[in-house]
Specification:
This protein is mainly β and 263 residues long. Helix content is 9%, strand content 57%.
Length: 263
């Protein structure tokens, strides 16, 4: 009941704030959105169903540009129903880059979960000055049945100050699990279009074979796609993902995780 109420509140609040710009994406992990992790809690406000203690390191090279590389570290912990995560990241080089500190916390169980997240950023400027930006948002998910899970994520319901120039959106999604195969669909809304209903659609499929998971996904606006691989063994997990953009080029992600939350 709490998770379903959280979903409704996130959707209502985010729809009301769509005309505002939303920016940045420092803690996007290498695993797919259906994969529970500290990065997912920090980036989308979606808490894991099971309590865990986990450490993650993420490296991203955006659009093949070393000047826009992101390095992130995150830790996540849980006790009973409580879930929390803390992360730090660095994107870019020298005056063109920025640093970020993120925190998230919420509650979850096998039937659903909800969390809030916040990010504080600092950017170096010429002469030793700098700019600051802060944002806050929330996410929630609920198990509609044993095989189906739905989620809503509005990571930037509120923001103030400066922020990096990557747009974030209200995202609604559904995941269907059947044995060793999982499918998911999502719709990400974006401000700026008539009626504020313009958006981006994504679909993906993942196949599990023992310690290995392979997956692929496609997106529109513009049409593009990607694929990834996750390998886990005795609490250690390595994930990589490659996405291609028809104009901007390839984005490559690499993630390493350790702890009780890594299968």
């Amino acid at each position: 009941m709490i998770a379903r109420l959280g979903l409704a509140l996130i959707v209502a609040c985010a729809l009301g704030s769509l005309p505002r710009s939303a920016r940045s994406q420092e803690f996007e992990g290498a695993a797919p959105v259906i994969h529970e992790s500290a990065a997912l809690l920090l980036e989308r406000g979606l808490p894991p169903a099971a309590a865990s203690a986990r450490f993650e390191a993420i490296a991203v090279r955006w659009f093949g540009l070393d000047e826009l590389a992101t390095s992130s570290l995150a830790v996540e912990g849980g006790w009973r129903g409580a879930r929390t995560a803390l992360g730090v990241s660095r994107t870019g080089q020298a005056e063109l880059g920025w640093s970020a500190l993120a925190i998230a916390g919420g509650w979850a169980d096998a039937r659903g979960g909800a969390a809030v997240r916040a990010v504080l950023r600092g950017q170096s400027g010429e002469g030793g000055g700098g700019t600051r930006g802060i944002e806050a948002g929330a996410g929630a998910w609920a198990a509609a049945s044993r095989l189906v899970r739905v989620w809503a994520s509005a990571p930037q319901l509120w923001m103030d100050g400066e922020a990096p120039p990557l747009e974030r959106r209200l995202e609604l999604g559904v995941r269907w699990s059947a044995g060793e195969v999982e499918l998911w669909l999502s719709h990400a809304m974006a401000p700026g279009a008539a009626g504020d209903l313009r958006g981006e659609h994504a679909a993906g499929v993942a196949a599990h074979a023992g310690p290995i998971t392979v997956w692929t996904h496609v997106q529109d606006a513009p049409p593009r796609g990607g694929f990834g691989l996750v390998i886990h063994w005795r609490g250690l997990e390595v994930a990589c993902q490659s996405d291609t953009h028809p104009v901007l080029g390839e984005t490559f992600r690499l993630g390493i995780a350790a702890g009780s939350g890594a299968p």
